[in-house]
Write a structure and sequence with these properties.
- By secondary structure, this protein is α/β, with parallel strands linked by helices.
- It has 3 domains: 272 residues, no CATH class; 192 residues, no CATH class; 115 residues, Rossmann fold (3-Layer(aba) Sandwich), CATH 3.40.50.
- The strands form 3 sheets. A 6-stranded parallel β-sheet has the order 8-7-6-9-10-11, covered by helices on one side. It has a 5-stranded mixed β-sheet with strand order 2-3-1-4-5, with helices on both faces. Strands 13-12-14 form a 3-stranded antiparallel β-sheet.
- α22 links the parallel β9 and β10.
- The longest helix is centred in the first third of the chain and has 26 residues.
- The two termini are 41 Å apart.
């Protein structure tokens, strides 16, 4: 049996190119200089502006619902939105293309609609009456019909296929449903125009308020004060709440109204628990995470790679995109704001084996960590986050990248020494990071060249490799630091650690381990066929076409991780930095020790095997 009539979008296969559907309207608006007051095509400019504002309305609601630092206590469905749901709702705005086509057709069919006055108060009263008397009851009847077995299976099941409502879920439906909704929403406007009381202002107000309420109802965050409906009980039947509509999404048997629960009351489909649950959700509940990954912002561009800015963008590996450039000044202003006023905040979460894992962000950017006067402030932020986690009952806090910088806080030792009675375990995760890099080195390798060789990671890698009788050329100008590391090796292994001071020494070595930035000139010393393993932040740029470049050490989370919907910087979906994964292993294994300071080389293989045991796999 073929697909049902109007059950799929005709431009489904066009991807981004679906936006060429706006082309004829945009082209005519440009040709007719529609932005000029005297232009006969000014209606086109207004129409395009209206639909741009409609898209912005849903985007702003999506941003708000993903601001976990504001909304996490009042979330209705506690599960996270995963990549599968994000992909399904990727083209949530298809209905805007459909409805702008419907609107343009009406304006061409009835030319008088192109010359409406700016405002007419009488039209507001007509539209309000028609909304209550026609749009609401007809939508209720249509919605119940779509829940009939035949129509639900062919059409409405798509809208209900995602269990976590989001503002974009409001647009996630079939063309037939949006045709019906579009016609019903047009009734009040058509009635006002037929009475000679239509206006541009009414059109904007009615359409945008409808979009506002639809996005609000799907936002999965309870907004209305519980006391409002106790003080004014009649409001229960005049306006729905996010909790009210979420009950419909999860149960599918009650609360069918558009915006006014009155019609559920009249139709006998009002869920009696709606207001009790609304009060409970509004009061909120704090979920205590078992594991926290304490991240930081990389730069101004990367600061926009979070769900509360653009969910779809955050669900893909970070890359600089052209559409980000106009937003850069806003992101720069935001940087100064969080630098001045913000504390560590929650940016995302997921569940693993029934336990809540959260990602918190220290409100500092990469360059801040290299400003001498910013050091104390950064450590204060990290310390406050650790103490907060300790009070909450968090089991493990894992420090990301620069948050555990040796020069900043000794790889976390500063906090552990200052607060010896911490119940939360502080983890830098570098043991697993070292394990990932070491396991990337091909078997049979006899020699490696390493920059950043005397760093915390460099030391551990060098000591591990020399135990395997692999010659390590350690690039460092500090003989003292080299000899200190060399003396840690067993007497029979010390010969495999060699200090070098020039890149020319590695001209014949095809395995480079990069822990310090390499310029294009320095990379030229590597022979063709070299592979650059990396633990430098940020990673080096790949200038050599005859060489290969590894990414930062990372691992793939287990398949049973739920609600994972954002990518960690430039890593692919489901993959996290090794220091993040190292903290997860620390939690899953129930280790009682802090993992701070120098890396225990004896534990590298132990942690690696533990990661594999728990389904955490190399990329």
């Amino acid at each position: 049996m073929g697909a049902a009539f109007l059950s799929s979008w005709p431009w489904d296969n066009l991807g981004f190119f679906k936006y060429v559907m706006y082309g004829p309207l945009v082209g005519k608006a440009l040709a007719g200089r529609a932005w000029e007051a005297a232009s006969p095509d000014r209606w086109l400019c207004l129409l395009l502006a209206l639909f741009a504002l409609r898209a912005l309305t849903y985007q702003l609601w999506s941003s708000y619902s993903n601001m976990l630092f504001l909304t996490r206590r009042r979330r209705i469905v506690r599960d996270g939105v995963d990549f599968e749901q994000i992909d399904k709702e990727w083209d949530w705005d298809n209905f805007l293309i459909l409805q702008i086509t419907m609107a343009a057709t009406a304006l061409y069919a009835f030319p008088s609609l192109r010359h409406l006055p700016g405002w007419n108060t009488g039209g507001l009263a007509v539209a309000a009456v028609l909304h209550v008397a026609a749009t609401e009851p007809l939508f209720y009847a249509a919605h119940r019909a779509f829940h009939g077995a035949r129509l639900f299976a062919r059409y409405h099941a798509l809208h209900h296929s995602n269990m976590v409502p989001t503002p974009f879920t409001a647009g996630f439906a079939t063309p037939l449903e949006h045709v019906v909704l579009g016609l019903l929403m047009a009734l009040p406007l058509a009635g006002a125009c037929a009475a000679g009381l239509g206006s541009v202002g009414l059109t904007f107000a009615y359409v945008l308020s409808s979009d506002f309420l639809r996005a609000m109802g799907h936002c999965n965050v309870e907004l209305f004060p519980g006391g409002l409906f106790r003080s004014l009980p009649f409001l229960r039947y005049l306006i729905y709440t996010p909790t009210y509509h979420t009950i419909h999404h999860t149960g599918k048997k009650a609360n069918f109204c558009l915006f006014m629960p009155l019609f559920d009351r009249l139709g006998g489909t009002l869920d009696a628990s709606s207001w009790e649950l609304q009060t409970k959700n509004r009061a909120g509940m704090d979920e205590v995470p078992d594991f926290v990954f304490l991240a930081h912002v990389v730069d101004v561009m990367q600061s926009m790679h979070v769900p509360f800015v653009m969910r779809t963008f955050a669900s893909t590996p970070f890359a600089v995109r052209a559409f980000l450039l106009p937003l850069w000044p806003i992101a720069l202003l935001f940087m100064f704001m969080v630098w001045a006023w913000s504390k560590t905040f929650v940016i995302s979460y997921y569940h693993l084996r029934g336990k809540l894992h959260q990602i918190w962000a220290v409100p500092r950017y990469g360059f801040h960590y290299f400003l001498p006067f910013a050091k104390d402030g950064i450590n204060d932020q990290i310390e406050l986050a650790i103490l907060r986690a300790d009070r909450m009952g968090v089991k493990v806090v894992s420090l990301a990248a620069l948050n555990k910088n040796e020069a900043l806080n000794g790889g976390g030792t500063l906090f552990v020494n200052k607060h010896p009675n911490l119940r939360v375990r502080v983890v830098h995760g570098n043991t697993l990071t070292a394990a990932v890099i070491l396991n990337e080195i091909p078997k049979g390798t006899t020699e490696v060249f390493m920059t950043g060789a005397t760093s915390k990671l460099g030391r551990a890698i060098a000591l591990y490799l020399c135990r395997k009788k692999i010659r390590v050329m350690m690039m460092t100008l500090s003989t003292e630091r080299f000899q200190k590391i060399q003396k840690e090796a067993a007497a029979e292994d010390q010969q495999y650690l060699v200090q070098v001071t020039k890149f020319q020494s590695a001209e014949q070595c095809k395995t480079w381990i990069v822990g310090k930035w390499l310029s294009p000139r320095e990379q030229r010393w590597a022979p063709p066929g070299t592979h650059f393993h990396q633990f430098v932040v940020p990673p080096i740029l790949g200038f050599r076409r005859d060489c290969t470049y590894g990414k930062l050490a990372a691992m793939r989370l287990p398949k049973d991780a739920r609600g994972l919907g954002s990518c960690e910087f430039s890593l692919e979906r489901g993959v996290v930095h090794a220091c993040h994964a190292g903290g997860v292993v620390h939690f899953l294994e129930g280790y009682a020790h802090h993992e701070v300071g120098a890396i225990d080389v004896d534990r590298i293989d132990v942690v690696w095997e533990a990661a594999l045991k728990h389904g955490i796999r190399p990329v």
